[in-house]
Amino acid sequence: MSPxxxxxPQSSAPHQVAARRWIAHLDMDAFFACVELLKYPELRGExxxxxxxxxxxxxxxxxxxxxxxxxxxxxxxxxxxTSTYAARAFGVFSAMGIMKAAKLAPDSILLPxxxxxxxxxxxxxxxxxxxxxxxxxxxxxxxxYVDLTEHGEQAPAMAARLKAAVFEATGLSCSIGLAPNKLLxxxxxxxxxxxxxxxxxxxxxxxxxxxxxxxxxxxxxPKATAKLEALGxxxxxxxxxxxxxxxxxxxxxxxxxxxRQAALGIDDRPVQTSRETKSVSRETTFERDLQVxxxxxTLSEKLESLCTRVAGDLxxxxxxxxxxxxxxxxxxxxxxxxxxxLPSATADAAAILRASRDCLRRVPFEKKIRxxxxxxxxxxxPAVVTRQAPAQAELFPAL
DNA sequence: TCTGGGGTCCTAGGACCC
DNA sequence: TCTGGGGTCCTAGGACCC
Length: 399
Fold this sequence. Notes:
Elements: E1 23-28, H1 31-39, E2 48-51, E3 59-60, E4 66-67, E5 69-70, E6 80-83, H2 85-88, H3 98-104, E7 109-112, H4 115-132, E8 136-138, E9 143-147, H5 155-170, E10 174-179, H6 182-189, E11 197-199, H7 205-209, H8 222-230, H9 236-241, H10 244-248, H11 253-263, E12 279-290, H12 296-316, E13 320-330, E14 335-346, H13 349-360, E15 369-380, H14 392-395
Parallel strand pairs: 2-7, 10-11
Antiparallel strand pairs: 1-9, 1-10, 2-6, 3-4, 5-7, 8-9, 12-15, 13-14, 13-15
Helix pairs in contact: 4-5, 12-13
This protein binds a DNA duplex through α3, α8, β12, β14 and β15.
């Protein structure tokens, strides 16, 4: 195949006339931050940053006004979960360390994340969409894909109705990308944020998608971006024209093939309305790094608590699991995991704790510990648990 | 002043089995 | 002197996403 002149995906191959799909990606605008603005309308227009747990709630004063924490007063660990557009203007974005963000915007207001409220608003906006269009895939708390194919040429009008319905149900704005597949819809929803409605036809790919940075493609992260840049590839168009053999020097066959397809805007994945849970986990970053010997009691306590929470999550979801694993992050940010597969599935906190301790014994402890996590996978219905695997004695008759 | 928490998927080597 | 081979499970690590 010639490396020059990439061809656009054909809308209909001669042997197989695929119906054109209309896929919407709906993304709530600065979701957590906007929910907070509904709670605290006096903050509208202010730079506001939402951070992870362990933060102070606003204090209600005697005169009825609220006293908010400022970024500059923050000391400790933690990252920015999200921020209002006013805060983003200072360069404060998600995943940035709060201490670093405080340097950029010391006077910004800092609020703790209120996941209960976000889940509530999430359910509301998803229900509003479901009332109009039932084929929905949950992506996260603030994003969904919606299959609007059945609306045909009316899909853009339906997308506009979805935006209105979401606003009516929540008082919040969202941005929608409407395109022939999920990959393009996702790229699109980001083009006119906030409150955008962006429609992309296959013939627009060369003019509207190819000029964008390759990292705008969902699935091209920091590592792949760096490798692509080393090959002189920055834009999606450059990726579409790149020599496959050259790409293969950096990426495996599978990923290379996917990169090319993605750059051409080809994506056949369906909108998946349901998926089963594959794993359940809980982890915690300590306020200070812990030492195995000196902080043994604290570590033991944390481990127990994590196992209890995992067991609670399993119970809530009516699940049990057979593979129990632990995760440790050390002071230098290096991470190790250990796991063990049990003879039969469990949802019991004590059993998970025993397995976790077995795993921990296999970890070399030379550095201080920053994070501890517990995970369970190989999940199944707890009703299956009674079907025991062979006992140890049967598995190892010689012993 | 470093870098949260909850997930999914992929790779790769070794054990083990037929 | 030598190289089976395919399939599945288990374990560890890493990239990526929201």
